[in-house]
From TrEMBL:
It holds the Pfam family DUF772. InterPro entries: Transposase_11, Transposase_InsH_N. Residues 188-414 form the Transposase IS4-like domain. Residues 22-109 form the Transposase InsH N-terminal domain. GO terms for molecular function: DNA binding; transposase activity. It comes from Winmispira thermophila (strain ATCC 700085 / DSM 6578 / Z-1203) (Spirochaeta thermophila). GO terms for biological process: DNA transposition. This is Transposase IS4 family protein.
Length: 440
C-alpha cells in the first residue's frame, strides 16, 4: 500500500497532468482550423486513413503545448499517455498502435509545407489575430518590433541537394551590442549565429504576436520590417489603422521607416536613435534661429546671449496640424532669471518642424517623459522571445530549412494566441500570459 507521501505525490502529478490537458483542450477549442482540416482531408482523399488527419494535427499542437522539441519525444509521450491519445482523437480501441510512425509524421509535415496548405495555416494565425482585435480592449494600439536570431540545427551549409545533414537556406548573422558596465565603461559584445532571423511585430500591452516573417540571418531588420508593414497595408489594413505607437530598438533607426509609419499611417515611431554625427559634433543650430540648438537625441536647448549658458527648453507638446514640436523658454517655464533676456531673439516659445531632421524630431519628442514610458514597453518583445526559447523549446529545436521554420513558427504563434483567447473566454485574463508551464 502506498504511503501518504506517495499518495500526495501521485495526486500532485495527476493535477499537473490535468492542468496540461486543460491547456491543450483550450488551444484545440479556440483554434479556427476547420478550413485547414477540410483541405487536408480533401488532399488525402480515399487514401489510407490509418492515422486520421485531425488526430495527427491535434497531436502536433499537443507537441507544442507540452514542449516536445522533436517528433520522437512527442511519439514517446503518445505511446505512454492514453489520455493524450484520446484527447487528440486517435482510435482508443487500438491503444498504442494508434500512434503514427515517424515516417507518417514526416509525410504529414511535408504536406503542411505545400503552398495551398501553408496558406490555410497562415489564415489560422491571422484569424486568431483578428479575434484578438475584436475581443481584447485596445489590442493593436501599441505595436513593438524586434528581430530574433534562431540558429539552425545544422552547423554548416549543405554540400549539395542530397546533403540532408547540412543547411541549404541559412547563412551567418551578426549583432553588435554596445552597453555600459558597472564601472561606466562602454563595452561591445558581438553575437554570431548560423541560421535565420524571425522579424516579429507584436502588441506590447498583451505581449501577443500580430505579424511575423522569417528570413536568413544576414538580412537587415529595417528593410524586412518595411516590407512587412507594406504587406499589412495591402492585406490587413485594419491592423495599421488601429495602431497608435510603434516601438523598437536602435536597430530600426531609419528615416524611411519613420516616414512610412508617421506620414503614411499616422503611427508615432518610438525608436531609439544611433549617433551618426561625425567629428565630435555635440549640437546643431535649429534652422532660422540664432541661439537654439539640439543634440542627436532630440534635446532642444537655448544658449543665453549674455553668459553663453546652455539650458534645456521645456517641451510643450506636438502640434499635428502644423507638423511641429513646441518648446518653451526655460526661464519663463521654470521661473528663474535670465541675464540675456533683454537681448534674446526668442519669444516665449519656438516651433520646430519635424522635417528639420526626421530621425531626431518625431511626433513623440525624444526628450519627453511619455517617449521614455512608451519605449520602456519595448521589453515586451524580449519576453516574447524568452517564451519562444523556454516555453516553446526553440532553444532545443531540430529544424532545418527556412520553410520548415516558418511553418513551425506559424503553429507556435497560433498556439500562443489561441491559449490567450481561451483564458480570456474562460474569464481568466490574469493568466493569459502564463501560456505554458516552463520546463524544469
Amino acid at each position: 500500500m502506498a504511503s501518504i507521501a506517495q499518495k500526495s505525490l501521485f495526486c500532485w502529478h495527476d493535477v499537473e497532468a490535468l492542468g496540461d490537458l486543460h491547456r491543450l483542450r483550450l488551444v484545440l477549442e479556440n483554434l479556427p482550423d476547420e478550413e485547414l482540416m477540410q483541405q487536408l482531408e480533401q488532399r488525402r482523399g480515399r487514401g489510407r486513413n490509418e492515422y486520421p488527419v485531425r488526430a495527427m494535427w491535434n497531436s502536433l499542437v499537443a507537441g507544442i503545448v507540452f514542449q516536445h522539441p522533436s517528433i520522437e519525444q512527442l511519439r514517446r509521450e503518445l505511446l505512454r499517455n492514453g489520455q493524450l491519445r484520446d484527447l487528440c482523437g486517435f482510435d482508443p480501441t487500438r491503444g498504442s498502435d494508434a500512434v503514427p510512425s515517424a515516417s507518417a509524421y514526416s509525410r504529414f509535415l511535408s504536406t503542411l509545407r505545400k503552398r495551398s496548405i501553408r496558406e490555410a495555416l497562415v489564415r489560422v494565425f491571422t484569424s486568431l489575430v483578428d479575434q484578438c482585435y475584436r475581443e481584447l480592449p485596445g489590442f493593436g494600439r501599441r505595436l513593438g518590433a524586434d528581430g530574433k536570431g534562431i540558429a539552425s540545427v545544422a552547423r554548416r551549409r549543405g554540400k549539395g541537394a542530397g546533403d540532408r545533414r547540412g543547411e541549404h537556406d541559412a547563412d551567418w548573422g551578426c549583432h553588435e551590442y554596445v552597453y555600459q558596465n558597472e564601472r561606466g565603461e562602454v563595452q561591445k559584445s558581438v553575437k554570431k549565429w548560423f541560421g535565420f532571423t524571425v522579424h516579429l511585430l507584436a502588441d506590447t500591452a498583451y505581449e501577443l504576436p500580430v505579424a511575423f516573417t522569417v528570413s536568413r540571418a544576414s538580412k537587415h531588420e529595417v528593410p524586412v520590417m518595411r516590407k512587412l508593414i507594406r504587406s499589412l497595408d495591402r492585406h490587413r489594413p485594419h491592423i495599421l489603422k488601429a495602431a497608435e505607437v510603434f516601438t523598437a530598438d536602435r536597430g530600426y533607426d531609419d528615416g524611411t521607416l519613420i516616414d512610412l509609419l508617421w506620414h503614411e499611417h499616422r503611427i508615432k515611431p518610438v525608436i531609439d536613435i544611433r549617433n551618426l554625427w561625425k567629428d565630435g559634433e555635440q549640437t546643431r543650430l535649429v534652422p532660422g534661429t540664432r541661439n537654439v540648438v539640439y543634440d542627436y537625441q532630440g534635446t532642444v536647448s537655448c544658449v543665453c546671449m549674455a553668459t553663453g549658458t546652455q539650458r534645456e527648453m521645456a517641451y510643450r507638446g506636438f502640434e499635428e496640424k502644423r507638423g511641429t514640436l513646441k518648446y518653451g523658454c526655460p526661464a519663463v517655464h521654470y521661473g528663474y532669471e535670465c541675464a540675456g533676456k533683454a537681448s534674446c531673439p526668442l519669444a516665449s516659445c519656438i516651433r520646430i518642424p519635424l522635417s528639420t531632421d526626421r530621425r531626431v524630431f518625431t511626433p513623440l519628442a525624444r526628450s519627453s517623459y511619455r517617449w521614455k514610458r512608451e519605449y520602456a514597453k519595448r521589453t515586451a518583445l524580449e519576453r516574447i522571445h524568452s517564451r519562444l526559447d523556454r516555453s516553446f523549446s526553440l532553444e532545443l529545436h531540430t529544424i532545418r530549412g527556412q520553410e520548415k521554420l516558418s511553418v513551425h513558427l506559424t503553429l507556435v504563434f497560433s498556439v500562443m494566441s489561441a491559449l490567450a483567447l481561451g483564458r480570456v473566454r474562460e474569464n481568466q485574463p490574469n493568466q493569459m500570459r502564463s501560456l505554458i508551464r516552463p520546463a524544469a
